[in-house]
Design a protein that fits this description.
997 residues; Beta-Lactamase; 5 domains; eight-stranded mixed barrel; 34 helices; 28 strands; 17% strand; catalytic activity; transmembrane helix
């Protein structure tokens, strides 16, 4: 706005406002007096009213709240000059209202109009400003005046409006030009410009021409117009504004004193017809000056913008270089110069090709320079340049051009990116991708990669062979169209694992018994995992599946799994499978009103038959008995051989003891039927004990124990019968309680001691290690109690961890004694599930080894397969911590339990100990030889050391040696003996075949 160019209103004090209002009053009085004086002279053309425009512009600078005071400052001098005039009070009031209306409108339009901010930016803006402050308020105020005069008896309203409008407009235009300049530039700026010799000279000339031309020349308007146009061309807008205003006032004065008489035929229109040409010659000169000023502003702004643009280009963080049509550098950003290690003088004016390396010169000339000159698009062209100090830099160049219309004056802006790091990373990535592809193609596993839509992007040679396809054929096809996965047991097609990986964004496996079917219909057992491929943002961009052909391994595993759950002699379920069946039945009883019965059966006097007829006859008898027992069970029932001559039935859905009795009587009758073995008739009887669930127990251990107790009661009461568990049998269990008490006392009194059984190298016969075996002699009976009797009881009563600590401590002491005697052996120690579950186990082991200054590498810890079934994650964690201490881990009695390749893969084993049941008949059973060979081959493939337990004769030792078993253990070499006895034996060990039996 106009007022914003001056002193801010907020800085004016209360005193300043009063002074300012006084200034309005004085200026209004002076200008109104001058206007009246000039109009009173004889021959005056018309009244020119100057004070309203001045008062309006000054009032606009005040806040609205002070406008009433400002209008009072106008009204007082207005009344002061009008009351003395010979006219009625009503007419004076009309003129006062007209003045206040004119002043208020000028101030209001000035304050509200947005055009005054850029009043000198264009002639149009200046014209709008004059209309707003001089013409529009004058028209409205003239209407007020004409209406008031008409109401007071003046009949010619048109003449009254024209006279008022002419007077106000002429005064507004005369004072408006310098008023706008003062408001826009301020008093100080205007004074500085006007007081220059140049400005004063032009104002003086204009004034002189005005006076002389109107006094002495025939066409004064022409001379005055020429003078003002010349002044407008050679001075500024401030000078011309004041010069034009001065000329207008001088002309009015000359005509008022009749020094110049206009030649106008119609006296009634003298005023408007005279002043119209005056304004026509005065206003254009001001407008021309405004045009000159606006042009100067535009040029200044353009120059500032060019300088600012140039500075911005030079200092911008981007890389920029501007070249001319000939390819010479004319401008370069500082960052580009810094990267090129150049200063301005070393690049500007020289061809840009100066920095381009020879291998990129053709690319630069053809794809950049020639393309730009042809007007073609240049985008992301890669060129190689060299910095001042020889550093090779890769640049990506895009370009735009700028022209002023002359083709020879075109300049091209090269927008540059330093892509050296990207090129280096790309080359490195290509090398890594090539290496990865070579690796993936050479590994023994099948590899299939997909994109995020599941379409195949890569398959290696192994996958090509298994799928019976090629990379070219498979690439681009969906995973499900090439990889056909089925459930081996149900034959149903498996869901696409790629979809699961993309949804869950985690590694996914496939079912253990998945098979892959290729386009020829061939099936392969596979095990695999499929993983997401993610980018740096964590977004899944594809998947990769790695799989192995485990067809043969799975067959062996399935066979081993079957053998692990079935008795090899009778092909009946063994204890492991039996316990599974019992636990499933117990679960059913907890879900519904369900019951079943567990029946133990033991052959009477079987040991006598075995001793008299031989083991082969005993085995045949067991096979015949097993065949007979199968006939007495239904499809949902179970008949199991759990060892020796012991069998266990599980009769499902039976709650009536009489029904069990009827079945058992039939079994007993069938068992005692004669059998022909080795041309001899042999008869046996059996004793059976039954326990009902849930009546006699609700867990497998209790049911088995009570059925076993009932069976022993049947034996003790005459055999060849069945007995049901009852509370009377608790007396039998009391003996078990007594044993538990004896064991607790034995631990407190340190009655446990260790025997050691050598483990020898199968090639050299040297003692490689000894297995520490816990022994206990019952002080009440003086007899050695078998470990199989008291170890489970120690487990049950929670002493096994404490006894385990004693065993490790005693073993360490023995190893220290042997070291003193010159023998450094490894020690194999059995650990139990309870020890593994003990949170202090690892710390206890570490402390004990440290106390005896023994390395963990001297120890082998043996665990049974049954331990792997309890808390798998904790077990793996404990075993890994033991291995981190150097201790090796052995799986004991391999093959007699849940032997599974998945355990060998999952758990960190170092040693595999083959159960003695596969060794004892190696010299007579080809089936056992095949089975042991399979175990040894598998162990070798998995890089596991092997130990064969239960070697009892030379033939067995030789077979195991020929099969590649690493170490041997058994009575053929030595029974478990004291540490002193073992030390004595070690002095004679040279060859396993001559090792004392």
């Amino acid at each position: 706005m106009l007022v914003s160019m001056n002193q801010p209103q907020s800085t004016m004090t209360r005193m300043s406002y009063w002074i300012y209002l006084a200034g309005i009053m004085v200026s209004y009085y002076f200008l109104s007096t001058m206007a009246l004086y000039l109009s009173k002279e004889p021959g005056s053309v018309a009244m020119v009213w100057y004070p309203n425009i001045a008062a309006g512009l000054l009032l606009a600078r005040l806040p609205y709240r002070l406008w009433p005071a400002g209008l009072v400052a106008v009204l007082i001098p207005q009344l002061g000059v009008s009351l003395p005039l010979p006219q009625t009070l009503a007419v004076n009031l009309v003129f006062s209202c007209t003045a206040l209306t004119n002043v208020s409108l000028i101030a209001y339009f000035t304050k509200k109009s947005n055009d005054f901010e850029q009043v000198y930016d264009s002639p149009l803006n200046y014209a709008k400003a004059l209309v707003v402050i001089a013409i529009v308020p004058a028209a409205i105020a003239a209407t007020v005046a004409a209406t008031g005069l008409f109401l007071n008896g003046f009949q010619n309203i048109d003449k009254g409006w024209i006279v008022s409008f002419t007077s106000l407009v002429l005064g507004g235009l005369t004072i408006g030009a310098p008023g706008i300049a003062l408001s826009h530039f301020g008093f100080k700026k205007c004074a500085e410009e006007l007081l220059t010799t140049w400005s004063l000279g032009f104002i003086a000339i204009a004034a002189a021409v005005s006076i002389y031309a109107f006094l002495h020349l025939a066409y004064p308007f022409a001379y005055l117009a020429l003078t003002l146009v010349v002044a407008a061309l050679f001075t500024n807008i401030i000078t011309i504004s004041f010069a034009a205003s001065l000329c207008s006032i001088l002309i009015t004065t000359i005509t008022s004193f009749q020094l110049y008489v206009p030649n106008i035929n119609d006296p009634t229109k003298t005023g408007i017809l005279f002043y119209l040409p005056v304004m026509i010659i005065l206003i254009p000169s001001v407008v021309l000056s405004v045009s000159q000023h606006a042009r100067t502003l535009i040029m200044n702004r353009l120059e500032e913008q060019m300088i600012s643009t140039r500075d911005a280009l030079l200092n911008m963080p981007a890389l920029l270089c501007t070249i001319d049509a000939g390819g010479h550098a004319v401008l370069a950003s500082k960052r580009f110069l810094r990267i090129m290690e150049l200063d301005t003088t070393e690049l500007i004016g020289y061809p840009f090709s100066k920095i381009v390396m020879p291998e990129s010169m053709a690319t630069y000339n053809e794809e950049v320079l020639d393309a730009l000159q042809k007007g073609d698009l240049v985008e992301n062209v890669m060129i190689k340049v060299r910095s001042r100090y020889g550093r090779e830099i890769y640049l990506s160049v895009s370009a735009s051009f700028e022209s002023n219309g002359d083709p020879n004056q075109k300049v091209y802006h090269l927008h540059i990116q330093n892509i050296s790091e990207e090129v280096r990373l790309s080359e490195k990535l290509m090398e890594e991708n090539e290496l990865m592809e070579i690796t993936l193609r050479s590994i023994g596993d099948g590899v299939v990669a997909t994109d995020n839509n599941g379409n195949i992007t890569f398959i290696n040679a192994v996958a090509e062979t298994l799928l019976h396809t090629s990379t070219d054929v498979a690439t681009g096809k969906h995973f499900n169209d090439v990889i056909h996965l089925y459930d081996e047991q149900s034959g149903k097609r498996l869901d696409c694992p790629v979809d699961r990986v993309m949804q869950e964004k985690t590694v996914q496996g496939i079912p253990d018994f998945a098979v892959l079917k290729n386009i020829n219909g061939d099936t392969f057992g596979i095990q695999d995992s499929i993983s997401p491929i993610t980018n740096q943002k964590g977004e899944v961009v594809g998947t990769i599946m790695v799989f192995q052909d485990v067809t043969e391994t799975r067959k062996i595993s399935q066979k081993m799994s079957y053998l692990a759950q079935h008795d090899m002699l009778t092909d009946l379920p063994n204890r492991i499978l039996l316990m599974d069946r019992i636990n499933l039945a117990i679960a059913r009883t907890k879900r519904s009103a369900y019951s079943f019965c567990v029946v133990f059966m033991d052959l009477d006097n079987f040991k006598t038959i075995n001793d008299t007829q031989g083991h082969e006859a005993g085995d045949q008898l067991l096979q015949i008995i097993a065949s007979r027992l199968r006939k007495h069970v239904r499809g949902e029932d179970t008949i199991s051989r759990i060892g020796g001559d012991e069998f266990v039935f599980v009769f499902e859905g039976i709650s009536d003891s009489s029904a069990v009795t009827r079945i058992c009587d039939k079994v007993i009758d069938d068992v005692r039927q004669p059998m022909i073995i080795n041309h001899k008739s042999i008869s046996v009887s059996c004793s059976m004990g039954a326990a009902l669930c849930p009546t006699d127990g609700e867990d497998s251990e209790t049911l088995m124990r009570r059925a076993d107790a009932a069976m022993y009661r049947a034996k003790h009461t005459g055999r060849n019968r069945v007995c049901f568990y009852s509370h009377q049998i608790e007396k039998v269990l009391s003996r078990q309680v007594a044993l538990e008490d004896d064991l607790r006392a034995a631990f407190k009194q340190e009655e446990f001691f260790l025997y050691y059984q050598p483990i020898v190298d199968s090639d050299t016969g040297e003692v490689y290690a000894t297995e520490a075996l816990c022994r206990w002699k019952n002080p009440k009976t003086g007899e050695m109690v078998p470990p199989a009797t008291f170890i489970p009881v120690l487990e049950n009563i929670g002493l096994i961890s404490d006894v385990g600590k004693y065993i490790l401590e005693a073993a360490c002491k023995q190893m220290t004694e042997w070291e003193v005697q010159g023998k450094e052996l490894h020690m194999s120690i059995n650990i139990s599930a309870r020890q593994v579950a003990d949170n202090s186990f690892i710390d206890s082991v570490a402390t004990t080894l440290s106390n005896h200054n023994l390395s963990g590498t001297r120890f082998i810890f043996e665990i049974t397969e049954s331990l792997l079934l309890t808390n798998t994650d904790q077990c793996i964690s404990v075993l890994r911590k033991l291995r981190s201490m150097g201790i090796r881990i052995a799986i004991d009695d391999f093959g007699c339990g849940y032997s599974s390749l998945s355990y060998l893969k999952k758990f960190p084993f170092d040693v595999l100990k083959i159960d003695k049941q596969f060794v004892q008949e190696l010299d007579s059973s080809q089936q056992d030889v095949i089975f042991v060979k399979a175990i040894l081959d598998m162990a070798k493939a998995l890089s596991l050391k092997t130990v064969a337990e239960g070697v009892e004769n030379e033939k067995q030792a030789r077979i195991l040696q020929n099969l590649g078993c690493d170490t041997l253990q058994g009575f053929y070499f030595s029974a478990a003996e004291s540490g002193q006895q073992i030390r004595a034996r070690m002095g004679h060990t040279n060859n396993i075949l001559r090792f004392p039996a």
